[in-house]
Amino acid sequence: MAVVDILGVPAPKKRREKKGYLRGWEHRKEAEERVLRELEPYEIALWQRIGKQFRGGSDARLKAFRQYVHDHPGEIYGELQSRADRGVEATVKLNQDLGGVEVPCAPPWRYRTRELCTRFGGGKKKR
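Structure (tokenized):
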């Protein structure tokens, strides 16, 4: 519903309320998705890193990217390796963080049973 002032003249729309503003964003997103749909799974990581440097329509960007991959074949393997390394580092860090957490041996025994706590010396011992 449009806002009308006292004279009956509709108030101008704000920039974010205009259809053209929203449609431009949608068109750019759809063009990006068209390129991603045509890429091989091993090319997506490199595209996410350097895809913004290619200009033009979705077909022109895809063609330029494929030419770049043809000229620099080691880039794909390097990007895949760096992503794998980051994943391994994150997993190792998570395991170290979780491994350092001491679980209480006290009621309620959510993480350990009472038998495990007494068998391995955890928790309080009754005298």
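Residues 15-71 form one domain. The CA atoms of residues 46 and 79 lie 6 Å apart.
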